């Protein structure tokens, strides 16, 4: 009895046999060597292969295609015999060192400028060398990385045309080989960073001035120069094929925004087509856009009622609740002129968010230290109002609109089902969290000093509400021995238990709009940046570079005066002007390059 060397199946066979065939995988297992070492071994060598090719050509007498039967027989014999195969690919260490040294020499001096496809094939051949990723001792490690840095340096500085050629080359690689290329770049960058840290542990790594790191990063960018939208579609199909979307940490923020914008446009187009289909085939009036007619004095009521009506409408005709919200949003303020080309929508978002998050409205509390808000456990508003807030934030993401929303990261972590704890509480209620930390580290008599029991507290319109954190918690004092449990329960009370109804309604509204696959590519920090935008300093020159002019030219006196006045403003006034134009004082997550800043001339003597 024995085990198959391939599938590990247990098999029975006579003790006298020299081999047996596995009945599971059909592998023939040799119990004794099938070829004796006394048999002459003729390994394949480069010289032998060249000789056989020359022989085949000579025998053809220059007539027709050479008959490579002799070469085919030699290859078949070599690859059918593990002794010969081993000997064919066994090189003395001196030969390996010579090959690696020669490789380094040609990389130091390629011999010509690398301008054509043919000029860079040798780099692709060198990359096939598996020894580049194998290091048996430190000296070899440094030597191989010296070779790798030159490969990456040459590849990174090729022309755009050759970079496109390389990208096409990379896309034809098998998944396993492609992953090995990524691992090679990753290990090289890790090696360089560790080397810098070990050399100067107190000095931060200097990425910018190290050409080796820059070159490796550019090569990594070539490896990731993929068709993101095709990759996203492949991933959505769950076909089992490799897709970068399986590893979203490899995709940049800009790439993820491109995907979510594509997903939003795709679903909006789909809803527009469905609207036309409904009109023609069912004779039912519908629109390809989500139109909201809002009275300014009834902003909340009108918004909530019309969003609810749109959901009821879609519920009546099919079960895809929330898909109506994925139409393009159009806003009309009742009694006012104006067609929504984006400005009215931004104003609606701005006014609605300002009203919903106003502490006076009672839905959210405000912390003066952190300048952040949180769900009010004592709110008298209905769950529909929190549902509306979730929809508004979802619509903002879906319509590429930045909101002036001061929710902490903990909110977005909860949306993704990620644990939140004391560290999250410290962000938006720093004073209270500091008090809990002091309780945890206090050296004296905890019970008599803090006089706390297992009760959570919150203020409800001037009255202090007390909620037991455990059964009979109002009669259980906090001591040195149970303070850890107390703090954990209190943090959970603030972040979860006291706001369960409010947050679940908010979450339901958010996912009615943003429940697609694209959202799962993001981390909570990225969603926060997507919703709020970035607070990085406003660079006037960068803003000017992306500004679009309509019926104005950049060198007109009016435009020159505008930018001159803009520069003279203090930063606070500049932010206010940015808010007037875009609806928020923050810039997009991917920077000013993606900000829509437009200056239009609407008439000769207009007062508007």
TrEMBL record:
Keywords: Transferase, Ubl conjugation pathway
InterPro entries per the UniProt record, alphabetical: E3A/B/C-like, HECT_dom, Hect_E3_ubiquitin_ligase
Ranges in coiled-coil conformation: none
EC id: 2.3.2.26
A GO term for molecular function: ubiquitin protein ligase activity
Biological process annotations from GO: protein polyubiquitination
Domain HECT: 325-608
Reactions catalysed: S-ubiquitinyl-[E2 ubiquitin-conjugating enzyme]-L-cysteine + [acceptor protein]-L-lysine = [E2 ubiquitin-conjugating enzyme]-L-cysteine + N(6)-ubiquitinyl-[acceptor protein]-L-lysine
Protein name: HECT-type E3 ubiquitin transferase
